[in-house]
Design a protein that fits this description.
heterodimer, A: about 150 residues, mainly alpha, two-stranded antiparallel sheet, 6 helices, 2 strands, about 50% helix, B: about 290 residues, alpha/beta, 4-stranded parallel sheet, about 30% helix, about 10% strand, globular
Chain lengths: ~150, ~290
């Protein structure tokens, strides 16, 4: 397993410890219920294309908000009520990578999707979820580059 | 507002049922509602009461070879989901029934013709505020004797596609225009469904699969609207064989369903090897 920020690492260890597929699905569904749409103080629709996750058919958007300590808080909007996996991914990324040192966020590989969801996703679904990870890590890299 | 199914001019309107019809048959023991989705979390999050799940990766594919399950696996699946040869199965799912029609098509390889698709799929059912549950039905196992899988009528393999191509047969590439043109080859870090070469099979017309549905509620377009796309715009001749393909054969199963059941083309095959096979084959013709 790659080196992940502590909160993400703990979640991945939890998911990795679940051998039963249905149990893992239930955990991801529970996580999807923690998804909260981006607050209007942060972003109001219609959202700009620059925030739109590429290749995500669930129409997911990512909004980075700088914290005072230089880290980022990540907010999401998933404009598809059937986008349960995208909502789970949004909740996971928001919970585990917000407020995390940017170099650690930037180093999260998109393949983390496999560790969370397994290898049974379709190409489209995988691309969308990987796109969400890529947007988050990309924002971290951009900010790191700006600070350099 | 979309008209009722029987008034849309379909060749085989009985291939579709409405959400209302399904709602009226939830307790009908002769009907088994089956949900097939792309998103693996959806069924467990909630589903139509009494519906069972058929998962495209676990249930329909051989777990070793790139192929579908064989007779014994199909019998086991049908037994597990409580289906007998007399049961009418009704498929529905996410993404405008994309995966539902894939499951439907595979069921046809085993001759389970008592099969229908719920028009509008999960989207329409949810839009209408119809009941959903997290309860998984205890269907009880059934005895199901299936024939051997018959790949000879509605499935195409690469040799057949090559012969068809050389005879200037009709091909429909149902992928996105970017995939068809070769602009999009495969995604980084996504080798499983990628291809070494981009483009399309020479002579194939491009009709993205989702053009056959109304985006607002996932229902199928009327026969007249479908004819305008496939026959008038793309000049497909219903009297001649058509082979549909996409990347792995799932999107093209949707088009297969449309051409076969809604427009009544008598000879349509789904090339499930699709671009992940053709785009990786050595020395086959490709057009961009």
């Amino acid at each position: 397993m790659a080196e992940y920020p502590p909160r993400l690492h703990r979640l991945l260890s939890r998911v990795g410890g679940i051998a039963d597929r249905q149990e893992r699905i239930q955990l991801l569904i529970d996580l999807s219920k923690r998804y909260r749409r981006v607050a209007e103080e942060v972003a109001r629709p219609p959202f700009g294309d620059e925030h739109k996750v590429p290749a995500c058919e669930s129409q997911a958007y990512v909004f980075p908000v700088p914290n005072d300590d230089g880290t980022l808080a990540f907010h999401f909007a998933v404009d598809n009520p059937q986008g349960i996996s995208a909502m789970a991914m949004a909740a996971i990324l928001g919970d585990t990578l917000s407020g995390v040192p940017l170099d650690q966020v930037a180093a999260v590989p998109t393949e983390v999707v496999y560790e969370l969801f397994g290898n049974e996703l379709s190409m489209g679904k995988n691309m969308g979820l990987m796109g969400m990870v890529g947007m988050v890590t990309g924002y971290a890299r951009e900010r790191l580059a700006g600070a350099a | 507002m979309m008209t009722v199914i029987k008034d849309r001019g379909y060749a085989r309107p009985e291939a579709l049922v409405s959400t209302e019809w399904v709602a009226d048959h939830l307790d009908d023991p002769a009907i088994r509602v089956i949900e097939s989705n792309e998103d693996p979390l959806l069924y467990s999050s909630k589903h139509i009461p009494g519906a069972v799940e058929v998962d495209w990766t676990r249930d329909l594919n051989d777990q070793l070879r790139r192929d579908y399950l064989e007779r014994k696996g199909f019998e086991k699946l049908m037994s597990r989901i409580g289906v007998t040869p007399e049961t009418t199965v009704v498929f529905y799912g996410d993404k405008n029934n994309w995966w539902a029609t894939y499951a439907y098509w595979i069921f046809q390889l085993f001759g389970h013709t008592r099969a229908q698709v719920m028009d509008g799929g999960r989207l329409k059912w949810e839009q209408e505020g119809r009941p959903m549950t997290t309860d998984v039905p205890s269907s009880g196992s059934t005895a199901y004797r299936a024939p051997e899988r018959d790949d000879s009528k509605i499935r195409a393999f690469r040799d057949h596609v090559m012969t068809h191509l050389n005879a200037k047969g009709q091909l429909v590439d149902v992928r996105s225009p970017e995939e068809y043109s070769g602009e999009r080859l495969h995604m980084p870090a996504y080798p499983n469904e990628g291809a070494l070469r981009g483009g399309h099979i020479p002579g194939a017309v491009n009709v993205p699969w989702a053009r056959a549905v109304n985006a607002a509620d996932g229902t199928f377009k009327t026969a007249a609207e479908l004819r305008a796309i496939y026959q008038k715009e793309q000049k497909l001749d219903p009297k001649r064989e058509v082979i549909a393909y996409c990347r792995i054969g799932e999107r093209s199963s949707h088009t297969w369903f449309v051409l076969t059941h809604l427009l009544g083309f008598p000879n349509v095959r789904n090339y499930d090897g699709s671009w992940t096979e053709w785009g990786n084959l050595v020395n086959v013709p490709i057009e961009k």
